Amino acid sequence: LAVKSFESRFVHDCLKRLPSHYQMALVMKYLDDYSIKQIAKAAGLSPKAAESLLQRAKTAFIKEYQTEER
Questions:
Q1: Which label site among 3, 46, 60, 64 has the fewest CB atoms less than 10 Å from its CB?
Q2: Long-range contacts: 49-54, Cβ < 8 Å, 24+?
Q3: Which pTM value belongs to this model?
Q4: Cα–Cα distance measured from residue 60 to residue 54, given in angstroms and rounded to the nearest whole number
Q5: Tell me: the pLDDT tens digits for 1-39?
């Protein structure tokens, strides 16, 4: 349980360091289970732009996670 709590805090801290639009996209997709179409509508983007935003957000999160992990 302590490991899961630590991991959850670690992920949350990494997420908080991302730009707000990346945070929004990741939270909507992976915590709130929104579709790309729903994310696009909420963000005022086309579905293709929402996909691109989500990809950039994932890349930024992974980079942040790997940097923190060291």
A1: 3
A2: 50/25, 53/21, 53/22, 53/25, 54/25, 54/26, 54/29
A3: 0.85
A4: 10
A5: 555 677 888 889 999 999 999 999 999 999 999 999 999
